[in-house]
Amino acid sequence: MRKVRWGVLGTADIARGQTIPGMQLAEHCELYAIAGRKLEKAKLYQEEFGFQKAYGSYDELLADPEVEAVYIPLPNDIHCEWTVKALKAKKHVLCEKPLAVSEAQAKEMFQAAEENGVMLMEAFAYLHSPFVKAVKEELDAGVIGEIRYLESAFITGRRPDTDIRLRKETYGGALYDLGCYAISMAMWMLGKEPDTVRATAQFSDKKVDLFTSALLLYENEAVANLDCGMLLPTGRLDRFHIHGTLGEIVSPVEFNQCGEIPYTIIKNGVKETKTVTAPNNYALESEQLSRCILTGEKPHVSREFSLLVARVTDRILKEIGY
Predict the structure, then answer these.
(1) 271-290 confidence digits (pLDDT tens)
(2) Which of these, 6, 35, 305, 316, has the minimum number of CB atoms within 10 Å of its CB?
């Protein structure tokens, strides 16, 4: 099976540090073109990673008929604009999370994909991990019974107000930048939208949320407690803990962690630790969309799932008044 010719629309840090190295590991992914706002920077990426072509504008890359798929790591406020442009150029798109700044915007993007006969997938790399699959299979098999409480958190250090992730005009803030992980984890494991959403937040002087805490409440008495923030003096905190009617599952795992990852099942005071070997998650996501293009496989992160995450995000944003 041949390789898909990929273009990367932008020179963001996540592209350089995570996704492009992951794409290099993917069996059916060819690093074909890179575009930046400045040709000089695009050429540096071309030299570093071995792209065949470098462009000084995003439009030039989209006009290249050899590009089949595009990865978009641009700021949140222009995800929709450039994703729609790429889709209209008949390119398949892998767009960084959060896919859109609202459910309405996400629907517009998926409609453009459908109208142009190409695929769009949100880049939740961690959801491709065998670790996430293993935990989900434990839950689906009823190992800990029915979920009653799920806790998920992603909290990092304080960033300067000038950081793009803390600018309101680019849809920065803890919920958009980090909360998408906690929300998607809860939706993936619980499998449905909450009946009630409650949330509160701490805001910066620039009116951007530095910390947001949300409670997702279900009619069957299940509760998801989600925390995200940019306020730690040092380090970062990633965690999830799931309590069921028969036991619990806990793991001190970082989102997008690879290698040997343990999780522990606790039932009747007995602990059983299992280990999953997880490859590079960024390689897994670009490889999966490449297979979709080549074989007709369905995107692992589906349209329905991305719309669900966007809808829950909208509800939390409304609660905190952002």
Answers:
(1) 999 999 999 999 999 999 99
(2) 305
